[in-house]
Amino acid sequence: MIAITGASGHLGKATLDFLLTKTNPESLVAIVRDSQKVTEFADKGVSVRQGDYTDPASLVASLAGVDTLLLISSAVLGEERVRQHSNVIAAANEAGVKHVFYTSAPNPSLTSSFTPAIDHFHTENLLIGSGLTYTIFRNNLYLDVLPMVIGDAVQTGKLPYPAGDGKTSFVLRRDIAEGLANALTATAKHENKVYDIGASTAWSFSDLAAGLGHDGTTVAYLDIPGSAYEAELAKHLPPPAVTIFAGMAEGIKKGEFDVPSSTLAELLGREPLSLDEFLKSLA
């Protein structure tokens, strides 16, 4: 039996969609706080169980009979996030789960510019030290977030962003979900592995700007100072979000997301969606 925590989120739902094409719904468990958010899966025969990252007892109960668990990282940050992940890992051990998959980030470390990667560093160490069989997906930045970064660049002809020449192996969230579903249904091949998950190519923001040009229009990438970007973010976002997005830009500049890998292509049996293909779909 395969269970997914955080199953009502974008990645959780997409992974369940792909799992339903590969295995019987009776062998799938969606663990959520609010069952109303996954009624479409309950209607298809998926077992929906209540489980809260902050409630260890509910987690143990929700994992009864589960062999393989996909732990999708919590939406909170910092010490609270690590504590929630620790609750899930402990519950998996208590419930007799054999194998835990975890969604992490590239280059997690205590010195990561991208602050969520610090949380992932701690969680990876907890999972590896738990005695459970593990598989860690270090998911790169989603192509799905690029429209927010691009903004009105096509209209203005300018793409301001403080990433220098840094590159990123951007990846579509649904491609990650499909890769997860393939790995979750072939667990023996992935025992105690840590995978960089992204495109086989890494792209700079100059590449992104070039890809935005079409029908005779051009877009210029402007490598602005990080302080200017952070000040602009502060006009629109709360401080925690400013820290994350500014840190993401700094991480790109430092090469923290420049980890092209063939792993996802191997899991999919094809190349994941490329930056050019994604930009064409936006156009």
Q: Which keywords apply here?
A:
alpha/beta; two-stranded parallel ribbon; 13 helices; 16% strand; 283 residues; Rossmann fold
Within the CATH hierarchy, at the fold level, what is the topology of the domain at 2-139 and 172-196 and 260-268?
A: Rossmann fold
Instruction: Write down the CATH class of the domain at 2-139 and 172-196 and 260-268.
Output: Alpha Beta
The fraction of residues assigned to DSSP E strands is 15-25%
> How can the largest sheet be summarized?
7 strands, parallel
Protein name: SDR family oxidoreductase
Organism: Spirosoma agri
InterPro entries: NAD(P)-bd_dom_sf, NmrA-like, NmrA-type_oxidoreductase
Domain NmrA-like: 2-279
Describe the structure.
With 283 residues, this protein is of the alpha/beta class. The protein has a domain at 2-139 and 172-196 and 260-268: Rossmann fold, CATH 3.40.50. The protein is 42% helix and 16% strand. Strands 3-2-1-4-5-6-9 form a seven-stranded parallel beta sheet, with helices on both faces. A two-stranded parallel sheet has the order 7-11. The longest helix is centred in the first third of the chain and has 17 residues, at 79-95. The mean pLDDT is 96. This is SDR family oxidoreductase. Residues 2-279 form the NmrA-like domain. Pfam families: NmrA.
List the helices and strands and how they pair.
Layout: E1 2-5, H1 10-19, E2 28-32, H2 39-42, E3 47-50, H3 56-62, E4 68-71, H4 79-95, E5 99-104, H5 116-128, E6 133-139, H6 146-150, H7 153-156, E7 158-160, E8 167-168, H8 173-184, E9 193-197, E10 203-204, H9 205-212, E11 220-222, H10 226-234, H11 239-254, H12 263-268, H13 275-282
Parallel strand pairs: 1-2, 1-4, 2-3, 4-5, 5-6, 6-9, 7-11
Antiparallel strand pairs: 8-10
Helix pairs in contact: 1-8, 3-4, 4-5, 10-11
